[in-house]
Specification:
This protein is an alpha/beta fold and 439 residues long. The protein has three domains: 84 residues, no CATH class; 159 residues, Periplasmic binding protein-like II (D-Maltodextrin-Binding Protein, domain 2, 3-Layer(aba) Sandwich), CATH 3.40.190; 147 residues, Periplasmic binding protein-like II (D-Maltodextrin-Binding Protein, domain 2), CATH 3.40.190.10. The protein contains 17 helices and 14 strands. Strands 9, 10, 11, 12, 13 and 14 form a six-stranded mixed sheet that branches. Helix 9 crosses helix 17, helix 10 runs parallel beside helix 17 and helix 11 runs parallel beside helix 12. The radius of gyration is 27 Å and the shape is globular. The chain starts with a strand and ends with a helix. It binds pentane-1,5-diamine.
């Protein structure tokens, strides 16, 4: 039996040794006597000679005193087990010939025929799963072996994932259709992925607030609409009235905290505890009036009249508006554009470092970058496409919609993209859990 430790940071403290003094290390007799450690690119083998000492043997300078059987054991370890150990840092062998692609995307975020046409054209079977928050995606990537070949982080989170080496570099030579991208979009992506080595833009939208116009007017009674649309959500005076027709808060810690911090006049990327206390004292007051926390079903709730106000994504609001119109149910869904505090959301395709079907993932990316394919997605889910060449194929009603394709001025007023950090994510998540639980 062998005991193997994975990892790149090796120190004596990582070893299961009881250290009495520097010269006196006791190796528990219940543990195996051979250890393989990886330090950077170097493989180190520890041979536990007896109960009170250890000898280090590295791959270059083998201990000549080794017995034959030990040498045999080492050869076995190096040839059979080393590839398995190093797999934590290097991508697994590509299994693209299985003709499979596992995609993990947001809900309501793909065209009518996007998957079907790709399958027909390539013979690759697409397994399509959905998620509804960056935190869930991040947890999957951190746990590893998700099996996904394509994931869709938002830019701020993608920065953390790139730094944590959870994503694999893209072979850009396989993506000739990148020429179709809007260079302005490249500027945004470069904020989190300077060489555009890991991310291929999918779409952009805004986190803002939408209302069912008639229901909100009725619920507010004689009160006029506030000048700042965020007051409807964060000022007790308004939200207490709207609770009767339903209020949905976006179930996404990052988006909500950025909005809340901006609302109380603080930096949306703040890590100062005092700023979070300020947010806490505000959200505490409005918590009783929130009737739903959602990052997906809110769209239908808005369309069907289940809620009259929702914080969510501009593309989803447009889908809700279209669904309500198609159903002729009289619900007029209006996206509001606050002067400040909207969050600029940028989602991009990426390949997990351990994706099993890397080549298929590249085929998919290049396919999505075709103008008609990109337009097919935008036309279905109402998001602004980063694909400049797709513009001629995009429905005019969407192109003319200033709540989707924002004016330059509105665009500049939204909270810009910045690379996130684990600390920021933790602060956002903690504050949001407090808000949700009401504790
Ligand atoms: C979900 C679309 C928005 C995703 N339907 C935001 N990252």
């Amino acid at each position: 039996m062998m005991f193997i430790i994975y990892g790149t940071r090796v120190s004596r403290h990582n070893l299961p040794l009881e250290r009495k003094s520097s010269a006196d290390l006791i190796w528990p007799s219940t543990l195996p006597k051979v250890l393989l450690l990886q330090a950077g690119n170097k493989l180190i083998c520890y041979f536990i000679a007896n109960n009170s000492s250890r000898k280090r043997v590295n791959t270059v300078n083998r201990n000549r005193k080794m017995t034959d059987s030990l040498r045999m054991a080492l050869v076995l370890l190096l040839t059979v087990l080393y590839p398995a150990i190093s797999s934590a840092a290097t991508p697994p062998p590509d299994r693209s010939d299985e003709k499979i692609l596992n995609v993990y995307n947001w809900s309501d975020y793909i065209g009518e025929d996007t998957v079907k046409n790709f399958e027909k054209e390539t013979g690759i079977k697409v397994n399509y799963d959905i998620f509804d928050s960056n935190e869930i995606l991040m947890a999957k990537l951190k746990a590893g072996k998700s099996g996904y070949d394509i994931v869709m982080p938002s830019a701020t989170y993608a920065a953390i994932e790139i730094n944590a080496k959870l994503l694999r570099k893209i072979d850009k030579s396989k993506l000739p259709n990148r020429v179709n991208l809007d260079p302005k979009v490249g500027v945004q992506i470069q904020k989190v992925d300077p060489g555009e080595d890991y991310l291929v833009p999918w779409s952009y939208s805004f986190t803002t607030v939408a209302i069912n116009a008639a229901k909100v007017r009725k619920a507010l009674g004689p009160m006029p609409m506030p000048a700042n649309p965020w007051d409807l959500v964060f000022d007790q005076k308004y939200i207490s009235k709207l609770a009767s027709c339903g209020v949905s808060i976006l179930d996404s810690p990052g988006d909500m905290l950025m909005i809340e911090l901006a609302y109380v006049g603080k930096d949306p990327y703040s890590t100062r505890p005092a700023d979070y206390e300020l947010v806490d004292s505000m959200t505490r007051k409005i918590r009783p009036y929130v009737t739903l926390f959602s990052a997906d079903s809110y769209l239908n709730e808005l369309a069907n009249g289940g809620v009259c106000l929702a914080v969510g994504w501009s593309g989803d609001f447009s889908i809700a508006r279209r669904r309500a119109r198609a159903a002729k149910n009289g619900n007029d869904i209006v996206t509001l554009i606050p002067r400040k505090g909207m969050v600029f959301v940028f989602d991009a395709m990426a390949i997990p470092v351990d994706a099993p079907h890397y080549q298929n993932a590249l085929l998919w990316m290049n396919y999505i970058l075709r103008p008609e394919v990109a337009a097919g997605i935008s036309n279905k889910v109402s998001t602004a496409s980063p694909n400049l060449a797709s513009r001629p194929f995009i429905l005019k009603e969407l192109l003319d919609d200033r709540t989707l394709f924002l004016s330059e001025e509105d665009m500049n007023s939204a909270t810009p993209i910045q690379p996130g950090t684990m600390e920021l994510m933790r602060l956002h998540s903690r504050a949001f859990t407090k808000f949700k639980s009401g504790l």
